[in-house]
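Workshop exercise sheet. Pairs work together: one partner reads the sequence aloud, the other fills in the structure field after running the prediction. Swap roles for the next sheet.
Pair: D.N. / O.F.
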Amino acid sequence: MNRQNSITDPRKIRTRKLLRDAFIELLQEMDIEKITVNRLAERATINRVTFYLHYSDIPDMQEKMADDMIDDIKHVFDNPLKNGKKLEKLLVHISEDADFYKITLASKVVPIFRERLNTLLSDKIVLMLEGKMGESSIVKAGIPKDIIVWYNSSALIGVIISWLQNDIPYTPSFLAKHFIFLHNSFLK
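Structure field:
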């Protein structure tokens, strides 16, 4: 059975969601080092053996959760929308699962999620830059591509994290509109 079929089994989806939600709840209550498979299984209302049917250990679960997060975000980016609308759709996605993103991105407890998001955004920015080589005033100014990528990915992640830490004070549309405006202002 391939990975896609095994993950689309409704029982597996339900169990993974229970484990994911339990993991996020426990991270809000205690240090990651104190989270055990027993605690996680108990919180998810499953038995320990069921946990091991899905994951080899807690770091494996984090890896797979980060993979799922990136797959979800890639799906948002793969839609044929203008960049401002893609950002808005990304922010909508994040706001719809705010508890998950707040603990995985806005805290430094589990760095794998932020690292994976940074890699994804950096890759998207590189593709965008390659499509605009020669057009951008930043590129014309001779700024190395890696600095442009670092700046843009850090700015976006920083805004998302601050937005989450401040309990999403702005709508995704409002934030996307203003982020794009600021971003474009710096590119002039």
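Discussion prompt: The longest helix spans residues 58-78. What would you look at next?
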